[in-house]
Structures are given as C-alpha cells and as structure tokens.
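Following up on my earlier thread - several people asked me to post the actual chain instead of describing it. Fair enough. Here it is, all 546 residues.
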Amino acid sequence: MAAALPLSRPAPQEAPRPRRLGVGFPLAFAAILATVSLVPYVLAYVMTPPGHHFAGFFFIADDATTYLAKMRQGADGSWLWSDPYTSEPHGGVFLFGFYLLLGHLAALAHIPLVAAYHVARITGGLALVFAVDRLGRRVLRPELQRLALVIVVLGSGFGFLVQLAGNPGVFGQRLEALDLHLPEITGWYSILAIPHFAWATAFILLSLVGLLAIAEHPRVQVVIGTGASLLALSAIHPQMVAVILGIWCMYRLVLAAWGRRPSLRSLIAEAGAFALAVPLLAYNAWILLNDPTIASWAQQWRHQAPNLPSLVVSLGLPLIGAAYGAWLTWRRRDTNLALLMVWLPLVLVLLYLPNLASIQRRLLDAVYVPIGILAAVGLHEVVTHLPRRRGRMLQRVLVPVACLSSGLVLAIALRFATGAFPEAYIDDGRWQAMSWLATNHTAGDRALSSPGSGLFLPAWSGVSVYVGHYSETVDYFKKIATANGILSAGSSALAVESFVRDNRITLLFWGSLETQATGYQPDAKAYWRPIFRNGSVAIYRFQAQP
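Reply from S.P.:
Thanks for posting it. Predicted structure:
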C-alpha cells in the first residue's frame, strides 16, 4: 500500500481563467446604433416639406429647443446661464454646464449648434455602450456580457400594448406607455432623443466602476478619476450623485451582512471620491435656495413619479428577468452582482417618497442598466436548464420581444421624418425672420411674441423673450393671458407702453400665430417701428412716443 502512494503531493493546478472578450462587439454595436440613430434626422432634413425648415428634434422638442438656447449662450462665450425665457431680472449662474460646454465646443469647431447637439447625442451613445460594457466586464462572466449589453441598451417594455388597449385603468390608475414617452427609462430612447441622458448614464456607470475599483484596491489616481466622473455627473444631473451614494451605502451594508467588511482605507478613499463633487453640489443647492428667480423656475418642475402599474408595464419583460436575476444574486450571495441587486429597490423607494424639488422621475436615470444586466443573468439561468436547442430558441424569441418597444420608438422617429407632424418644422417666414434677428439684435433685447414663436427665438436668434417655455418661463400661463390681454385690439397706448417698460421688452415678433391669438395690428401703432418684414412675419422695435 505504501508503495502505491505518491512520493510527493502534486502541485494544485490553477483554475483556468475565464476568456476575456475583446472590444470588437461593443465597438460594432455602438457604431450600428450611432448610424441607425442618425437615419431619422437625416431623412427629416432631406424630406422637409416645401416652405419649411426642420427644427432638428423629434422627441421632447420643446425641451430640446431650450437646450439649443443654452448652447447658444455658451457659443457666445458665457460659462453662466441666464434664463432667456422669462422676464424677471436675474444674474447668470453655473447651471446646465453640459450644454454651455457644447456651445463653446461648437464655436471652437465652427459648426452649427444643432449639429453639435447631434454630435453630443451620438458620442453619448458611444460612451453609454462602452460604459455598460466596462461594468459588464467587471461584474459578469464573459458568456453573459454581450447578452447583457444588448438587453441594457435595447431592452424596453410593453407600452405599445397599453397604447393599443386605449390606456385602460388598473387599480384606479390610468396606464401610460412610459417606454414610448420617457427617454430616461430605456437606453436606446436616450441615445435617439436627448444627449445628456446618455452622457449622464455613462458617468453614473463610470462612477460605480471606479468605486468598485477603489473598494478592491484604493489608489489615488482611481479616486481622482472616480471623483471626476461624479463631478461631471453633478454638472448634468446632480441628484444622481445622491442616488449613487445611496446605492453604494446599501451595497456596503449587503456585503457586511454577507461577512465582507471594508477596510478603513477603502472607506476613506470612497468618501474622497464623493468629496470631489461636493462643492458643485453645494453651489447648486445654494442657487436653488437663494436666487428668487431660479427658485421660482425650479418650483415649476413637474417630474413626479409615474404610477407604479405604468412603470412595471413599461419596464416589461426585462423587469421580470431582472427580478429572477436579483433573487439568484441574493441566494448565491454573488458579491459581483450585489451592487446591481440593490439599485432598483432603492430607486423605487426614493421614487415614491416625497422630496422638496419634486424631481422623483429624474431618479430613474440609468435604472435600465441594473434591470438589463440582471435580466441577462436570469435569462441565462433559465436557458442553461433547458435542452441546448430549446434554450437557444427561447433566447432568440425572448430577447427580440424584450426589445420590441425600442423598435417602435425608432418607427415613431421615422414617422416624424416623413413630415407628418408640423410641430417638428418652422415655416419659412419665421425662419427668415429669426435668421435676420440672429445677426441684427442688440445686447439686452427682449421680444414679445406668441409662446410658439417665443420657444424658438432664444435658440435660433439668441434673443430672450417674455414667454416661451412651459417650465422656464416663470408663471407661463399667467404671462400668456397677460400678453394676450395687453395686445388686444382695444388696449390703450399707455397700457402697452407701461407693460413694455415694466418687462424690459424692446422687440415685437409678429406673424400669423400672433395675429390669430389676439387680432392685434402693430402696423397701426406708432410706437412699434418695423425693422424687418418677410411675408406674414414682421419684427418691430418699441419706440417710446413723446
């Protein structure tokens, strides 16, 4: 028996390292998404109806137009934003730094602002894809990374069924197709619509990847890089820095419950990364609390949480897979996925708690990331327990179903591109008038017009307005009524002059929209001196009468 025993114990063999995927798939995937996202906009320019000009946007076009106005302030050399959509006196503040920076870059590159907007949208999509891929490489096995990337970026819900059913009520609440209306809850919609949504998600993920790296091995350069990501995020969606802090604290608590306690050095380094973003966050809070005009503007925000049944339906099949993936993570005590496991529950709690700023819906940023990654985990677990052929067939069916609404969002954009919706276009009269005004206005000019024209004037002419945007115009509806009353056929010259002086109005932008609203005839008033006329649109400068 002794002779049969080995003379020495064989050295233990190292477990084979998992095969790491290259960047080929993420790069190709990102390039395809960027190209496809451009198609509707290019078609819209090519297929613009005669006598019109494409305004550059399909989704949430009124908000997107205000982003263009912010970019124009940056292109004019400002690093401080002043609200061009309201007449209340106020100074410049450092808000909307993302779009101010875009304006500066557009001026340096000598490209149109709307082109810079779409460059930011496309690069934001690229940044989003690579940030998701980077997080996936850290927390997932290689065989799950591609599946997770596809579901995160293209996954969506069943909002189309809600639309087809006529938005029925459930538990006393009307169902809404949020995945067809809110870009922030799906990756593809964010890429297609609003650039700062995609960039914000990229910075959220880079911040979390950095925090995971700090927890693993605290280093000064990683702390600085993570702090820079949090600082960049605070210039886009500062509320998400608080959400990340909450996610990270919950993650640490879960790990502690599983017997994984952090070192003091790691905790100090993690706190240091967050500390780099504190000055800008404190400044934002101070502005919102102490600047009366900015405070009044902020009070008009309407970003309340959607009702829960609508949210569940609009997150759809990926949410079901994510619930299973989260349960697997908890059962297995998977420390790699624990960060994603706590993300959605925490956001849901915050979403339905009251907050002073009424920005609950803004807490949904990037929530599709943990849903998509955990859904890939759940789907893979189901597939691996089936015969190979049946499992592959099931995956080939479920993944497209989980991404169906993203395809419908693209179809909506293509429908817009056919010219079927006139709100995406500016008629030639207003376009020519705004183009002229862009180079012929003076500093301090403020225009009075209809809200429809007032929305475009700051963006395309750089001229502030009395009323123009439902959120950025303080007392928007009251001002519409006031302006219509002042510019009525029977208003006296004294009333008009007093109104114009009190609100520091210097210009009157008048066309068919304005005439239809009030019937006012500025040509019959001596105090309005015409300075531009093109067809049905005219611009007047106020001239006080002796």
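Residues 113-139 form the longest helix (27 residues). That should answer part of your original question.
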